[in-house]
Amino acid sequence: MRRFPRWRWPRAAGGRPRSLTEPPLVRTLLIGAALVFLLLFLVLPLLLVFGKALSEGWRAYLAAVGEPVALAAIRLTLLTTAIVVPFNLLFGLAAAWSIAKFEFRGKNLLVTMIDLPFSVSPVIAGMLFVLLFGAQGLWGPWLQAHGIKIIFALPGIVLATAFVTAPLVARELIPLMRSQGVEEEEAAVTLGAGGWQTFFRVSLPKIRWGLFYGVILCTARSVGEFGAVSVVSGHIRGLTTTVPLHVEMLYNEYQFTAAFAVASLLTIVALVTLVLKGLIEWRAGAGEAGR
Amino acid sequence: MAIVLDHLNKCFGSHCVVNNVSLEVRDGELFVLLGPSGSGKSTVLRMIAGLLEIDAGRILLHGSDVTGVSPQRRGVGFVFQHYALFRHLTVAANIEFALRIRKTPAAERRRRRDELLELVGLVGLEKRLPHQLSGGQQQRVALARALAHQPSVLLLDEPFGALDAKIRAELRRFLRRIQSELGVTTIFVTHDQEEGFELADRMGVMNYGRLLEVGPPMELYLRPQTEFVATFLGRANLMVGECTPSGVKLGPVVLPFDGQVTAGGGERRVQVLFRPEDVAVKDSPDALRWPLLGRALVDEAGFSGSIQKIRLRLPPLQRVRPISPAVPFGADYILVEATRSQHQARQFPLAAGDQAWVGVRRTHALLHPGLSFLAVTDGSPEGAAAVELAGSIGRLAHARLTLLGLDPDEPRMHAHLEQLRERIGGGPAAVDLRSSPDDLSETLARETTRQPYDLVLHALPAEGATAAAERLLESQEHHLLLAPSPPRPVPQRVLISVAAGEAGKYDVLFAGRLIRHLGAAATVLSVAPEESSEQWLEQGRRFLAGAARTLSLLGVPERTQLRRGRIGDEIRRELSEGGYDMIVVGAPLPDRSRRISLEGVVGGLLADLRDLPVLIVRADLGALEPDRPPAGARAGENTGASKTLAGSVPPDARRRKP
After folding, report:
1. For the ABC transporter domain, which residue ranges apply (chain B) (predicted)?
2. Cα torsion for B175, B178, B184, B186, to the nearest 10°?
């Protein structure tokens, strides 16, 4: 017969002596507090989202998700993400590369600017684009004269999303590239590898997990971005509503079940991201363990 | 020659990490480049590999100039200190990397890979990733990888630096075996002299960007030419003594020496090296079959495996300056290190506090005595400016520097000197501190008698400069550099104003030795009186031509100028036209009471030159004795012309510009 494991007080990490660590009671309380918080504010709400989404049964769930407007929102979100992620991948790689490997004038400025989208509220970011490209904006008249529509259309949504997610890949890569140094590249060069060969055979493989993780984060954020997109989208149902905007509109119209049904899609994206993140950390950790 | 480096230079800003390095490495040779960290040895290696651009100079590999060739096409193998293995590739893929790049057929690639795995003894590990190997194994993979494309030159940058002692020793033997098996020309960079001794066919020692000496390890250990190499390779007892025809004089004793020491050209002081194993320690002077240094007190006697290390205190010797081991501040003795076999230690046991008689079995005199400077400060900003100039020149000349502080409050002065030393940083061969509560003349006389200096640096006094300079030149034989304040950058254009004569030659020679280190250009100016004859002018021209040859042999870019008129006026005119930032003048010969009077031209210049460093060179008459070669001859000067000139100017008629 299997027995439950006997209760044990949590041990201090690294086997440190008693005098150097907290008393067992404190350890237990701290761990308990963290777990309770996690349960109350993360796990429970997550379950509630799925519970609410399925509260009227599978049929209602599928109807809400399969509704043409919802499908259009999903399409728009996927399209936006498909444009934004590769763009930010290249931008992040270029920025991290130049920051980690070159010395140039304005480098500090570039480092600061990369963080700007994190420090600026997304709503303000959205408004910046309205100021630039809106009908009354800086370049508005010129754009109108040439029949180019940016605000309240796909380009605006892509721009806003790209802006908000711009730091993610670069932020992931800069510390990684700095710590890795350039010795492997130098070794490749002395072995005869040219610039591109060095890049594809050495530099890129070296940072692949960091890059992958950055892309995952960037994707998750692009799918879920609300604030900036909300300002530039114009909320034209079926045309310029992304999934998060669609959820908000349904919610405002008191269609709670439908709102949560679509929201559950976003939740699934978040969960998949978490799982992938765990996998990558495990893989990358295995690769680095011997260093 | 497999590798030829021709006057390589590399500077980062104003900091030159590689300074005029020239080197030839023979085919199949294992050459070790040795030096402390920051000496520029790795920089040289990276420049050979093409990983670093060079500022000036050329690199030849097997006779072809690769200076502008990309690293990919130089065909070198490079092994890094931290292995730099491709972490995402297996051992096999790492080794095959260079062959894949070269699109070698798969079968050939596999054959070569297996060959290399066998060579480095890693058969069976080809599927592992780098992080699954130990450090020693990783470095062997790195070596195999660097050899895969059959490079003509193998470069190793402190490859065993990150490994522990036992594995290092193992890998050393392993590398030596592989290198002689393959016969690939190899440069091995390390800071570990033991590693260098064990591996090298020949080695070169670097410090502060300069390649100081090149030779077989044994030769460099037994017969170093520079102070740095003497003290960097193994333990050394190094003192400055005097050179006499019968041998090297260290205080009361005359020691025989091995090499040929040329005491010409006024270099009567000489650095004497004896290794700890050359020191004999006995219980009575009669038991010593070697020249006797004196009776010493045992300071320390320690056990270190197969040998016994002893530190001995000797009473101070007149006019002997110890360099190594360094004597603690304020000590009045000389330290000597000795080693004995355990057998000897058992026969005559010694412990700290015992007395013993000390002799020397073998001495070696260094050919190039380093420059030594004494910078005097009274704690004022002007004094600090003089110290700063001493620091920057001392750094470039790799001179020994002593900072002398004059202040009744000695502890305060000592703290101030510590600060100044901090500011100077590394660069000079050594920076010693001395403070004294006494006045300048007394302290200077004492200090310069105790240890001779080449150059004394002092602030250019605002008033009474002439009298002050005379006082500073009163004792001993040093030259004098008066530094303006606030501090100026290191001089780049120097005016050497000297009389056409034997003493003038010495002035040019000493100024040239100093200026060479600064990387400055020099103009030699000679002024002839308005009414001087054509013959006089002709002599002046010949003198200047000789001076130019001397300077260019020293590597100093030079220009000469012959002017007619009143001396002081012409010097001022040249100064105002030439954009100079330092002036060298010769001091007149001392009178019968050995006093030097600077009234006249030098005094006149000192009275109104406020913003130029002024170097006053004292002619060394010893260097001008007829039985010694003339000063210029040492530097290869054509002596024919100068002899005529010397003959026409009798030494006692030699008035340096009335």
Report:
1. 3-233
2. 0
